Amino acid sequence: MFVPVSSPTVIGQVINGAKYTDSFYLAVEVDPDKTFNSHKGGYVWILSTINSIQLQDSIRPKSGVLLLEVGRLKKNFQTFMATHQNKGALNKGELETYHNILNALWAPILITEKNYK
Amino acid sequence: MFNYQAILAQITGLLKGLYITNIPGITSMSALYLSSLEKRLAALAKNTVSGDLSKDEVLEALTAEWDILKSELNSFEQLGLTIAQGTINDVQGVFSSILLTSIRGDTPVALDNEGLGDGSGSDVPPVPPIKP
Fold first, then answer.
1. C-alpha–C-alpha distance, residues B13 and A110, integer Å
2. B88 — contact with chain A (CB < 8 Å)?
3. How far apart are CA A11 and CA A17, in angstroms?
4. Which residues on adjacent β-strands are paired with residue A89?
5. Which end of chain B is more exposed for a tag (fewer CB within 10 A), N or C?
6. What are phi and psi of B117, to 5 degrees?
7. CB distance B130–A44 less than 8 Å?
């Protein structure tokens, strides 16, 4: 099986993306103002980071596995972002649920990227 | 409320085979996954009882668990583990069953049928435009 070459740049972006996603949800959870409009900047930053990882991986030969994992992360992130936007504000339970799921979707991406040769 | 411990037991049983491997890292990674799954399911149950999550939101979260597990299995494969298609089908069957019987009642719930993907990237979801 052909294995892509691991990229330190992508590893750095994955670490930063995971870290920022975690801190973003922690911040919204404790903020009395849980409206989408007050936090949309965080969503844009995370989504642009995911897009960047996706773009860099898409131009690598035989990069399918990471693309699948990033695609799942992006799909769920966009669903949660749209829910927040449509509802206007999220409650603590919704934020905790989305936070947990996104943390869990970042982890295998880092493992996969680090285990490329 | 759904019985999260029953769900956890079902998934643990299915992944038990993955522990029987001599590939470094797989055993600890599967244990880590199951431990974090338990925490997520417990939080989901708690938030269902408190009324913070609707039935649809619980369903959405459990469907996301299918994505998480697929990505975990992809990363296991990256470490050298070969996962039989039968195992993947079994796990998908259990998830469908969980969603069907535990949450939705008698309404069928469709899970995507991509398996773990063929690695070509052709089944990556389309990219919608960024909303500022």
1. 26
2. no
3. 10
4. A35
5. C
6. 85, 160
7. yes
Instruction: Please tell me what DSSP assigns to residue B102.
Output: I
Task: For residue B114, give the amino acid letter.
Answer: E
Q: pLDDT digit string (tens) for A63-91? A: 678 999 999 999 999 999 999 999 999 99
Q: Does B38 touch chain A (CB under 8 A)?
A: no
Hey, of B83, B124, B130, which one would you mutate to test binding to chain A, going by the most A CBs within 10 A of its CB?
B124
What is the ipTM for the molecules in this complex? 0.93
CB proximity list for A94: less than 8 A, separation 6 or greater: A83, B47, B52, B53, B57
What is the token pair recorded at B38?
A: 């338990």
Tell me the residue type at A54: Q
| Structure token pair of residue B27 | 């055993």
pLDDT tens digits for range B35-88? 999 999 999 989 988 999 988 888 889 889 989 998 998 888 888 777 777 777
